[in-house]
Amino acid sequence: MNVRIVARHSDLPEDLRARAEGLIAKLTKYDPRLTRAEVVFDEEKRSKKVEAILHLDRVDPIVAHAEGDDYRSVLDRLVNRLQRQLRDGRARATDHQADKFFEATAPE
Known about the structure:
Elements: E1 2-8, H1 14-25, E2 34-43, E3 48-56, E4 62-68, H2 71-105
Parallel strand pairs: 1-2
Antiparallel strand pairs: 2-3, 3-4
């Protein structure tokens, strides 16, 4: 998977950049169709924001935002949101197919 990290209005330490790449790369276990991710770190006056855009094959991109005082806590909150979105989307897709299968094979 290709991970692109961008820092706006600030400089990112190398360990934070590596942590972000590692956490985003682990998201492939929730959906194997994940091909590309863009993570944007943005610093404003009193807050730090992180935005992630995940690109999956044959599906609309998944976008999540998080905001806080520290990049590490914001990144953890962002990854939790992405995990939830990926789990829910995958469950929706598999449940939708399972309903058709069970309806077709259910005895009357």
